[in-house]
UniProtKB/TrEMBL annotation:
Region Disordered: start-end pairs: 1-20, 77-114
Family per similarity comment: Belongs to the DASH complex DAD1 family.
UniProt superkingdom: Eukaryota
Record keywords: Cell cycle, Cell division, Centromere, Chromosome, Cytoplasm, Cytoskeleton, Kinetochore, Microtubule, Mitosis, Nucleus
Listed Polar residues bias regions: 91-102
Protein's UniProt name: DASH complex subunit DAD1
Example of a GO cellular component annotation carried by this entry: mitotic spindle
Species the sequence originates in: Penicillium canariense
Any GO BP annotation: cell division
Subcellular location as annotated: Chromosome, Centromere, Kinetochore; Cytoplasm, Cytoskeleton, Spindle; Nucleus
Amino acid sequence: MAWHNSTPDSGGRAASPTVFEQQREELVREIAVGMEQVLQNINRLNRNLESIITVGNEFSSVEALWSQFENFMGRPEEELEEAGQGKRTVSGESEGQGNAGTQHEGEDNPMASQ
């Protein structure tokens, strides 16, 4: 890869490259080697990304199944919220009655011990 400029004044210089030309050729060679390594690393990265995408695609059916399960399990809460205050009041009253019954039982225990 010698770059020679033959001019009438150069004479013998065209036959032997100068120090500048030698250094330039060495740098061009190093750049070419570096670019080849970059290309190899990019190809390796591309293969790894493709394998990761393939593995991710294998889990798409599992993800869809879990999404359906999540939607199914979340649906009753949303339906209760959308149904209105009537159902909330009934469930709230039953919870309150359960707490009142528990307190009542707690009151009975001290009386039973006396």
